Amino acid sequence: MQTEIAGNPDFGHLKMRLDAGDFVYVESGAMSTMDDDIEVKVKMLGGFVPALVRKALAGESLLVGQYSSNSPNQRLSVSPAIPGQVLHKKLQGETYLMQSGSFMACTDGVTLGTTFGGLRAIFSGEGLFFLKISGHGDLWYNAYGSIVEKEIDGEFIVDTGHVVAWEPSLNWQITGMGNLMSTFFSGEGLVLRFSGRGKVWLQTRSLGGLVNWLRGYC
Amino acid sequence: MQYEIQCEGSFPVLEITLAPGDQLVSEAGAMAWMDTAVDCKTAARGGVGASLKRGLLGGESFFQNTYTTQSGGKVALVPGQPGDIRVTDMDGQRLMLERGAYLASGPNVQIDSNFKGLKGLFSEGLFVLTATGSGPMFWNGYGDIVEVQVEGDYIVDNGYAVAWDASLDYKVQRSSKKIRSFLFGDQLVMRFEGHGRVWTQSRSPRSLSAWVYPFRRVESKG
Amino acid sequence: METEIIGSAAFQSIVVKLKAGERFISEAGKMVRMSTSIENEVESVKKSGGIMGGLKRMLGGESFFFSHYTALGDGEVVLAPTLPGNVGFQNLDGNSGWYCAGGSYLGSGPEIKTEPKWQGMKGLFSGESLVFIHATGIGPLVMDAFGTVSEEEVDGTFTVDTGHLVAFEDTLEYSISKAGGSWISSFLAGEGLVIRFSGKGKVLVQSHNMKEFGSLLGPKLPPR
Lengths: 218, 222, 224
What we know:
- The complex is a heterotrimer.
- Chain A is mainly beta.
- Chain A is built from four helices and 16 strands.
- Chain A has a single domain, classed as Double-stranded beta-helix, CATH 3.60.160.10.
- Chain A is about 10% helix and about 50% strand.
- In chain A, strands 3, 5, 6, 8, 9, 10, 11, 12, 13, 14, 15 and 16 form a twelve-stranded antiparallel β-sheet that branches.
- Chain C is mainly beta.
- Chains in contact: A-B, A-C, B-C.
- At the A-C interface, strand 4, strand 5, strand 6 and helix 4 of A face strand 13, helix 3, strand 16 and helix 4 of C.
């Protein structure tokens, strides 16, 4: 299977060539172009999760398309819903925590689980769950805007709409910005407070920010 | 106070390094990430009455954040829309801004909102912010920001003018003179006159709002 | 008449430079800025092909009306799409026409004729609007795109999700269907309609899908 990320930094998308026997899992609605011998089936991501809980998941449907090929060199292109950077990670057994809306595609061998964000996560607009991604294989994920990587050693604050992923070595907590009024009125909604050592990946725009801006013209 | 506009491409981020004694003000909601050494206080700037008026008419939110630090730290600010971020070092001049264009400023910059109603034309008015004072003022546009030097006159659709020198005169008018096209698909335009600069953005928030309209949920009545 | 595409890749617009007497047409509401020597007339319903013509175009995602620009003196008019992305451009030489899909028609020279073409009932069931604008004649044809535009030279078959289709040459045959083998499978996988091209001709594809973006953004805004 050959893959190529095109269009970065503003319109990242993934171009692939599949041979018979290749499988790739892609978030729903992402397919843009494909050759005739590409087949698509529906799969459930991350194992069984109760329907009620699934409904609360804001950013991502749990259903993914499983794409495979019946002949060699079949082209398949997929795009995220939102403009921005697309990145690739080769997983070799490590784990990442990821905002559910950032997942784009992966190969067999990558396991996708969910981790509970705590009740406060509902108000952050990101849904109840973050994805827990581990295993061995290829992972493609996207950001709204550009991705900035930060190495944390101590403490750091990130608006929840701007977090893409982080290493589980970090302690994390969803909190308000200060007092309740501050949180409610500062427009930050909630923030993720990281402490310890590890990397975070941030995005330079957020869907919440876009909504707040556009709302003034509606 | 030091600043850096980071990230190549259409989604830049403004990173400000604050030293003890510095003060930065921003739109509430603009903070993307920051060191815990930075203190962020939210308040209605200038008293509740003034802020409310600005919020309702200017399209900016009611509240603003003030950032200070005891030991020094960084704060990253972003606008809601994709596009360029610009800095103007204010030095006593007056700069007019479209309502969604303001991002952040130093403590000696004043931002006021004005509602420029249109008498006898449409109920849609023009929300404009006036920036005065001194120090850094950070603003942004939806899309690329292009500077146009006006010598005489020039027409800009009012969804696309993001900032202009207050020295320029302008009139808001319909783009077409024919009566029969009065109500349909017509545009309000700003006709600038005089000598000065206009900054235009390459996308219009109004057009985006019209485009997304069918995707919005329908309000159920009763 | 000269045209120039300006701007960063994400926010392209097109500058149309007109000499006195020259004309240009665009979808109404696309003008960014222009010289005062250019007259902009939004045409009446009659000129737009009557109510049916206007309705057809509206269902196709185009605005109801066209703007007619006439240069009374030398000047320029700058046009821009609604969403971030490239501007698509083709110079029609009269040998083949182009179909603009999904509201991608932005503007064209005065010698280009545009006609809405309805794709039939298939479009309605999935909520897609499948009216194509058929552009024929000679001159520049300008299009909107959401994302980057790539040109595919088809010689055989090629399948595109309709949300990613910008335009295609009318020399191509095409059929519209669901993506996967079964309707249920496709629907659950979130795929919309796909258009399958066969024959020889060019297809312009945009990297991002307007419908996906709208469906993500729309529900988060206040209800209408």
